[in-house]
Amino acid sequence: MKAKFSKIQDVNKFVEFVSSLKGKVYLKSGEIKVNAKSIIGAMYILQEHPDDIIVEVEDVEEQKLVLNFLMQGTHLGE
After folding, report:
1. Does the pTM of the predicted model rise above 0.90?
2. Interatomic CA distance for residues 71 and 10, integer angstroms
3. Each residue of 13-24: pLDDT tens digit?
4. Bridge pairing between strands 25-29 and 53-57
5. Sign of dihedral through CA atoms 42, 51, 75, 19?
6. Host H or E run for residue 57
7. CB under 8 Å to 62, separation ≥6 — which residues?
8. How far apart are CA 49 and CA 74, in angstroms?
9. 47-to-17, 23, 61 alpha-carbon distances in Å
């Protein structure tokens, strides 16, 4: 699933959310793939490819939770 982050606070909220999950979550763009639970990795990929970020979630049930989180825009600041 694609993700868009407008502000650093948005990334922080996303990393905080996925860090509460048990399974592996990645942010991917082109050849770069980082652990989505790492704020440093998330900031790096956001800096390199801000408009082309894909979220990969290994656990099917957690995929639904992440998709719901992204669709609700809970991570987006006002």
Report:
1. no
2. 13
3. 999 999 999 999
4. antiparallel
5. negative
6. strand 53-57
7. 21, 22, 23, 25
8. 22
9. 20, 25, 29
